[in-house]
Write a structure and sequence with these properties.
- The protein is an alpha+beta fold.
- The strands form three sheets. The chain has an eight-stranded mixed β-sheet, sandwiched between helices. A three-stranded antiparallel β-sheet has the order 9-10-11.
- The protein starts with a helix and ends with a helix.
- 31% of the residues are buried.
Length: 295
């Protein structure tokens, strides 16, 4: 039985309140929408706190972003939602927020692609980092578009996170899973080691996924070293990082990474930093402490 507009609005309000309660948005951040028909969308308005928004304040727009119903104006980022609906069949809801740990990875420029947690491998697979785009422009939708075929959750570089789903609760739960994964991954990095699962273990997990009736069509898989494992038979693709048997290329790759950001060493037991990055990090920490003392 199809839901009424009022029921869809109630769902949006519930998700907005959950997002706000978890601290994934501040002030008027974030936006939520539901596609209620082939030609109409109900979405959150601009300039409203998601923790206090009411059903009467929600907006209905067409697939061009033109307002059909509502007193307020739609979010300036509704075009990002519309582009998802136009380019990924079966998706009927979009949630955009700034969850702390996931956004931290987005700001650091680090995708969450590695095969680490079975539940994430089964439900989400790898989580890509999309190229930065100016908010409220078509740059962000265009940068997301190439990932839509395989992914349902995205890190938006220097911006936040986006999750999509067949309904608004599925989109919300995917965001919830993303933030938990990002938090666990961050803690593991601080402890000094992210233990990436081996290929055979990942194949068995993907086999369980298949037993749950989840299709591997357009499933993104997850990354082990330079390879994405996407199926129970190990099919995947090699990425730009050099293979371990090409030592000269691997050493060159390490040198480049050391100049840019943190990287994990061969034995996966320590994280190495370039001298310059270490000095920058210590300087930033000391400055932050001094500023807090002064205040």
């Amino acid at each position: 039985m199809e839901k009424t507009d009022n029921q869809h609005k109630s769902d949006i309000i519930e998700v907005c309140r959950r997002v706000y309660a978890k601290g994934w948005v501040a002030a008027n951040d974030g936006n939520v929408s539901i596609k209620v028909s082939d030609s109409t969308i109900i979405c959150t308005p601009t300039g409203m706190s998601k923790g206090y928004i009411t059903a009467e304040q929600l907006i209905k727009v067409d697939m061009m972003g033109n307002k059909i119903e509502g007193e307020l104006e739609p979010s300036s980022e509704v075009k990002m939602h519309i582009d998802v609906y136009k380019n990924k069949p079966g998706i009927n809801a979009v949630v955009h927020a700034h969850p702390t740990f996931a956004t931290g990875y987005a700001v650091a420029g680090i995708p969450l692609e590695e095969c680490v947690i079975p539940e994430i491998i089964i439900s989400l697979g790898s989580i890509p980092l999309t190229k930065y785009g100016t908010p409220s422009t078509m740059e962000i939708p265009e940068n997301i578009r190439s990932y839509l075929k395989e992914h349902n959750v995205f890190l938006l570089q220097n911006h936040g996170a986006l999750s999509i789903g067949e309904d608004v609760y599925k989109a919300y739960y995917r965001m919830e899973s993303l933030e938990l994964f990002a938090r666990i991954n961050f803690i593991a990095r601080m402890l000094g080691n992210v233990n990436v699962l081996g290929e055979e273990e990942v194949k068995r997990i993907i086999n369980i996924r298949e037993n749950f009736g989840l299709s591997n069509l357009n499933y993104p898989g997850c990354r082990i070293d330079s390879k994405f494992v996407k199926s129970a038979d190990g099919n995947g693709k090699d990425e730009a990082a050099p293979s371990s048997n090409n030592l000269a290329a691997r050493e060159s790759f390490k040198e480049d990474m050391a100049k840019e950001r943190v990287f994990v060493s061969d034995n996966q037991k320590r994280i190495e930093l370039s001298k310059e990055k270490l000095v920058e990090l210590i300087t930033a920490i000391v400055s932050n402490i001094i500023n807090k003392v002064k205040s």
